[in-house]
Specification:
Number of strands: 0
Number of helices: 6
Distance between the termini: 21 Å
Radius of gyration: 20 Å
Largest sheet: none
Oligomer: single chain
């Protein structure tokens, strides 16, 4: 762990309990798309950030628990939505059916990842679990493939 984070951690008493005060997430479930007139994407469908923000300033202060998966999945949502709209424009699908297919796919694709993000946030905020994580055990070691 690099400075100043290393010193900050080392200065904490061994018996100090740290907790996270906000965690905003929900596992996506099927939603009413009003016969293909409305759908959801990104955080509206599947918030994965392991904390809630009350303002933009807090949002700008990303930490090591932010894996970025919410953005990755939101970009994927946008791509899949465009694919569905293109099918509608080409006459290969009705809007109602395309939105239904898209919405079902978002729920299927994102439900597990929301839970993984939640578990990751919990693990990253628990020192013992963090030290046992693959990130700490393997990713901080020098690779055999690296130049000496």
């Amino acid at each position: 762990m690099c400075e100043p984070f290393r010193s900050a951690v080392m200065w904490m008493p061994d018996d100090m309990k740290t907790t996270y005060d906000k965690m905003a997430y929900w596992v996506p479930i099927p939603w009413d798309n009003h016969d293909g007139r409305v759908t959801l994407a990104g955080d509206a469908a599947h918030p994965m950030t392991p904390r809630g923000w009350s303002n933009e300033r807090e949002m700008a202060q990303l930490t090591y628990v932010d894996r970025g998966q919410g953005l990755n999945y939101a970009i994927c949502d946008a791509s899949h939505f465009v694919d569905m709209v293109q099918k509608v424009v080409a006459g290969a699908s009705r809007l109602k059916d395309a939105i239904k297919t898209y919405s079902e796919e978002v729920v299927r694709r994102c439900a597990d990842e929301v839970l993984i993000s939640k578990q990751n946030a919990i693990m990253m905020l628990n020192w013992d679990q963090l030290m046992e994580s693959p990130m700490m055990k393997r990713s901080l070691q020098k690779s055999d493939l690296s130049d000496s």
